[in-house]
Amino acid sequence: xxxxxxxxxxxxxxxxxxxxxxxxxxxxxxxxxxxxxxxxxxxxxxxxxxxxxxxxxxxxxxxxxxxxxxxxxxxxxxxxxxxxxxxxxxxxxxxxxxxxxxxxxxxxxxxxxxxxxxxxxxxxxxxxxxxxxxxxxxxxxxxxxxxxxxxxxxxxxxxxxxxxxxxxxxxxxxxxxxxxxxxxxxxxxxxxxxxxxxxxxxxxxxxxxxxxxxxxxxxxxxxxxxxxxxxxxxxxxxxxxxxxxxxxxxxxxxxxxxxxxxxxxxxxxxxxxxxxxxxxxxxxxxxxxxxxxxxxxxxxxxxxxxxxxxxxxxxxxxxxxxxxxxxxxxxxxxxxxxxxxxxxxxxxxxxxxxxxxxxxxxxxxxxxxxxxxxxxxxxxxxxxxxxxxxxxxxxxxxxxxxxxxxxxxxxxxxxxxxxxxxxxxxxxxxxxxxxxxxxxxxxxxxxxxxxxx
Length: 453
Fold this sequence. Notes:
Shape: globular
Number of domains: 3
Oligomer: single chain
Strand order of the largest sheet: 1-5-4-2-3-6
Helix content: 25-40%
Number of helices: 14
CATH superfamily of the largest domain: Alpha-D-Glucose-1,6-Bisphosphate, subunit A, domain 3
Mean pLDDT: 95
């Protein structure tokens, strides 16, 4: 696709992602997403804390109003908050303006359908077709049909209420007196709401990195930079550290000793608790092929079916919807609890983990022992652009991979995939010995480079 990538349109704001382009993307999107409705469409817009957020929001709003759609401006809110509100308010569509975990100069545009889900590739393609056709110039509302926008920052309280009604009774019944959480909001979209949620649920907490200034989002903080949180947890004797990303759809954690708890470990801990309660749909967990080998072994040992999809949370969600599963996610901490929200929700994930810790009265480090994470190494092989998808057609490369797999005999694995954006083939190997797998990954990457130059 020309504009949309794996997660909406993401570019450097005000140059590559210009107000002119955003204006057109709004018009085309409003047309495609509401052409089957016979009423004036209503579209929600939420954003993170980037300096370019209000610029993109203004251009987006102008595009929607010019087409004849009405707009509700929700202001700074996590991506899952917009997904939730879209369904709750029965809006026709919504947009999140964010570049997630990227640095502040980037921004992005992500569309959600009226079901509160990221729109499928086919609809993105349709929007692109309209964008590049003459049709875009016809999408102009007549004078009395021009849309109106209203400021609805108060809707953040609806999202707060969602957490209260979901967790209030649970946390009221649990002993929280000796439990303290440190929360890193990455100077991003969770910086307003996280404190309110934890306060409303009566959980003792510290908040870090919640003074956004437009340019400090994700800067040495949040789920992509855990060092500050690790040190804080140890220094302040916290029981748990939580880190969100810029738009609040991911959550990683840190145990009381400062060790990282990634998405795989969080999923294992929560899946185990849900299974005990009979709440893990079809006793199945969905993850991508990038999940650690330890996840597969954990599922085998705990009688949980393990389903793997292509890389990308949208493929995890597709599989869950198709097969009636309710828990899935990625190593990155993008975890979907389908009983509550059809997109990853960092705050929801952190509360689910916290609930398990308080219910089981065990330290997070103890809960994490449920899964053994195997060392993993990822090396990029630089190849010709036109040959990057040929790695699985070359008999010699195939033979090398097969030999390695045999050598591991179930205690290691090799995953090779082409980069979607660069002339690279990614070689990922997992095994019990870090030094050994690093050596083998380098050898395999060099061999692939030689064969696919």
